[in-house]
Amino acid sequence: MAGSATCSAGSGAAVNARFTAALAPLDLRPRHYGALAVLEHTQPATQQTLANALGVDRSMLVAIVDHLETIGAVTRRRDPTDRRRYALELTSHGRELLARCKAIVRQGEEEGLAPLTRSQRQHLLDLLTILAVHTPSPPHADASG
């Protein structure tokens, strides 16, 4: 069993390195892609909602959102219902970046799964789904304030 864990860790690190390198020309990192993907389905979102969805603390999230705002991918405005909060939304540029990220993900999946038959790919997906359902969620950032 230890051999499979080592193999998985090595494969995961290699996939992450390739994904990080593929995102670099877009001035993004995997954590930025995660934020864009969450915002696609949850907008406007508060910074706290986004932090919880990503499983990061608020200080890490501020850096992520600052970068996305700097490159024009998101807007951050005061929440009209609660002036203490910010509402985050994707811009048209953010939606374009997200589409490009998804294409990078699809290409990476195709390359990574190329040795598997269609049946093997489906079996892998079924197994990963079982694992995902039975894996506890990471602790979320403090929900106060």
Could you give a quick summary of the protein structure above?
Helices cover 64% and strands 12% of the residues. The chain has 145 residues and is mainly alpha-helical.
Report on this structure.
By secondary structure, this protein is mostly helical. It has a single domain (18-133), classed as Winged helix-like DNA-binding domain superfamily/Winged helix DNA-binding domain (Arc Repressor Mutant, subunit A, Orthogonal Bundle). 64% of the residues lie in helices and 12% in strands. The chain is built from six helices and three strands, in the order ααβααββαα. Strand 2 (74-79) and strand 3 form a beta hairpin. The longest helix is centred in the N-terminal third of the chain and has 22 residues, at 2-23. It is globular and about 55 Å long. Mean pLDDT is 86; it is low at 141-145.
CATH class: Mainly Alpha
If classified by CATH, what would the architecture be? Orthogonal Bundle
- What overall form do the CA principal axes indicate? globular
**Number of discrete domains:** 1
The unreliable regions are: 141-145
Individual helix count = 6
Helix-strand category: mainly alpha
* Total number of strands: 3
Termini gap: 44 Å
Keywords for this structure?
145 residues, mainly alpha, Arc Repressor Mutant, subunit A, three-stranded antiparallel β-sheet, disordered C terminus
